[in-house]
Amino acid sequence: MSAPSPSPAPGRNRKVLGRLSLPERTFVTDALRTETVGGVLLLAAAIAALIWANTPIRESYESVRDFHVGPASLGLDLSIEHWAADGLLAVFFFVAGIELKREMVAGDLRDPRAAALPVVAALCGMAVPALVYTLVNVTGGGSLDGWAVPTATDIAFALAVLAVIGTSLPSALRAFLLTLAVVDDLFAILIIAVFFTENLNFAALGGAAAGLAVFWLLLRRGVHGWYLYVPLALVIWGLMYNSGVHATIAGVAMGLMLRCTTRKDEGERRSPGERVEHLVRPLSAGLAVPLFALFSAGVAVSGGALGEVFTQPETLGVVLGLVVGKAVGIFGGTWLTARFTRASLSDDLAWPDVFAVSSLAGIGFTVSLLIGELAFAGDKALTDEVKAAVLLGSLIAAALSAVLLKVRNAKYRRLWEDEERDDDLDGIPDIYEQDNPAYHLRMAEIHERKAAEHRRLAEVTGGASEENDGPA
User: Of 7-11, 100-104, 202-206, where does mean pLDDT reach its minimum?
Assistant: First the structure.
């Protein structure tokens, strides 16, 4: 056996935001396709909510939103708005839990060195907006209760913006945005669990924990059947809601329990987590999140109300946190990670590209609206004003990132075309085969075949010309 070749010095020659592996690229492409469709539906739902709440039929919007339904004996006599926030978003966080589990066992977060970038960028992208909000409200005499509102990124809305502006963002930047949002969701979940939980009902919490234990045992024993898991999940959700812990935590916990690695000896092509995510993600992106937006984004908007966003410290802190804090925090975290790990940016990208994507992460729609409702639950007027600030801040961040990305779109398109080129038509992009001798042999055969076809065509054309030039 030959001695192993020496490995490079730690941190040297490592590229930040370099090309993805082919399996990771395929997964990211599939995930982002669903998220993009969901983002467009989310955008449509938000627009519909704003129109519905700002027209003469706004009373019907309030009547539907505030209509109560559910068994009061189980503590679940909730408004439609409440069902959307606590019920439907549990599906969204269930998918987020699966994504996080997959990233930790099979994705970028599995390797500590690769995980450092999105983790540090996400932490800085949450800490700086919270700091911006806090500074604005300390100096302006506002409430500090909303410090967590501008800390979240809405990946679906961000991808909808990309779809609308039509930029061909390279897969490495898209994957960075997706992984960043997954880590962001994790910390948002922790914030909700730690800072927005009070008046615990330990009996209900114990019941939820017991239900989760049963859920875990069924998974570990390989028990199949949605008719077992769905009713159990509903019971766990109901107990978690009544415990005082935000009910979406139940969705995250169940998502994290799913196995996201394949068993090759059993012939698995996809893990159970991937199969469940494939089934549930359309429900989350196409129904749960848009309905939440429909019943949460309907706030009264006028010229005067939008102007007041910039005069109140709470709302101004949210806008500046999303627009300035997110961009500065994520960009700064990425640069610091590269600086202190002695890594260099991918040759295909420049630091302005990272700043543009960081600005895009300032779109904090879904989770920011949820945290805004939790932070100012006792003040309906301020809750609506903070929601308006989230909408406005997300809109400004979207417009800023659209301009920055459009400036570089010609460069992105060339990179995207290089990533997609498949001249040998084998279903694998050529950029992943350039070091494979078999690829060069196939390409030589293709070029030789095309050259032969050109020669035959020239002979046929030449022969026809000679016949035409002959005597009549």
Answer: 7-11
Q: Distance (Å, rounded) from C-alpha 215 to C-alpha 250?
A: 11
The Cα 374–Cα 76 span in angstroms is 18
Quote the CA–CA distance of 3 and 245 in Å, as a whole number.
56
Bridging pattern class, strands 344-345 and 15-16: parallel
Which pTM value belongs to this model?
Answer: 0.77
Tokens coding 348: 């295909």
- From residue 145, alpha-carbon distances to 38, 125, 167, 388 in Å are 30, 19, 37, 17
pLDDT in tens, 310-348: 889 999 999 999 999 999 999 999 999 888 887 777 767
Q: Diameter of the chain by CA atoms?
A: 105
| Among 21-25, 183-187, 191-195, the least confident range | 21-25
397 and 308, same structural domain? Answer: yes
Res 320: pLDDT: 96
Torsions phi, psi for 15 (to 5 deg) = -105, 135
pLDDT of res. 301: 77
The three-class DSSP label of residue 391 is helix
First to last CA, the chain: 78
d(CA 418, CA 356): 21
* Residues 324 and 462 reside in one and the same domain: no
User: Helices 351-360 & 326-340, crossing angle to 10 degrees?
Assistant: 140
The predicted-structure confidence for 80-117, as pLDDT tens digits, reads as follows: 998 998 899 899 999 988 988 888 887 767 777 777 88
Q: Are 402 and 356 found together in one domain?
A: yes
Those residues whose C-beta lies under 8 Å from the C-beta of residue 310, and which sit 6 or more positions away, are 316, 319
Joined tokens for residue 418: 């290089």
Domain range holding 446?
430-469
CA–CA distances in Å: residue 313 to residues 1, 100, 147, 149, 164: 68, 34, 11, 13, 32
83 and 185 together in one domain: yes
Query: Per DSSP, what are the bridge partners of residue 78?
Result: 69
